[in-house]
User: Fold this.
Amino acid sequence: MNNIDMGKLINSIKMEFFSIADNVGLARVTVATIASQADLTLNDLEEIKVAASEAVSNAIIHGYENRSQEVVRVEVSRFEKYLEIVVEDKGKGIENVKQALEPAYSSDPERMGLGFVFMQSFMDELEVKSELGHGTIVIMRKQLSN
Amino acid sequence: MNVSVKHYGTTLKVSVGGELDMGVADQFRRELDALLTKFPETNLLLDFSRVVFIDSSGLGVILGRYKLLSKAGRTMVISGVQPQVERILELSGIMKIIGIYPRETDALSQLS
Assistant:
């Protein structure tokens, strides 16, 4: 999925915040604000909010195992042809990314293993780069209509 | 997130408002568990008409309560779900196991 033509970069926000549950909403609103500047349906916007929420929640819950003073980095960029959301943590990393992307995979019984399912369902592209002990980068892209 | 409670016979109606994400999941879980422990004979009706957002953290709380109630021979249903939330419930598969009703009266009649 690399080397796709995303078109010109129109707007971008980079933010870093503590790995606190209350910040998930903040990240979601920021992503939705940039996304809403593109020509997307309300349905698309809702889906993008869920995808962003899942990625940031994963970073806090799994990446940092709920430690609150770590840093989550979110970058949301609106290109001519794509909206791109990057969520990065420097946490423990995912041992087996392929397995983690499968539906119903969860290390916590109260969570449903739906995080990556929603990200995959609601975005057009999902890329997960992870290294044990070094962290995880989730890159999601949604195609924008011309 | 905010929660209000009403009784209809053996049904406990819990109205929830706001965004059900990781930021409120623990509080939501604690409040529901406290209510379900305090009123051990009741079934649960979750009024979702004021829920504007849900993700897998919120879904996890719902599914967890459903499992607990089922084990105790109790049940739960959800009413008044907004379209964007309904889509998430549908995709999660929760709608296959938990009854979801547009109107509260339909949900209540399922429990009585």
Notes: Strands of chain B lie at 2-8, 11-20, 43-54, 76-79, 99-101. The helical segments of chain B are 22-38, 56-71, 83-92, 104-111.
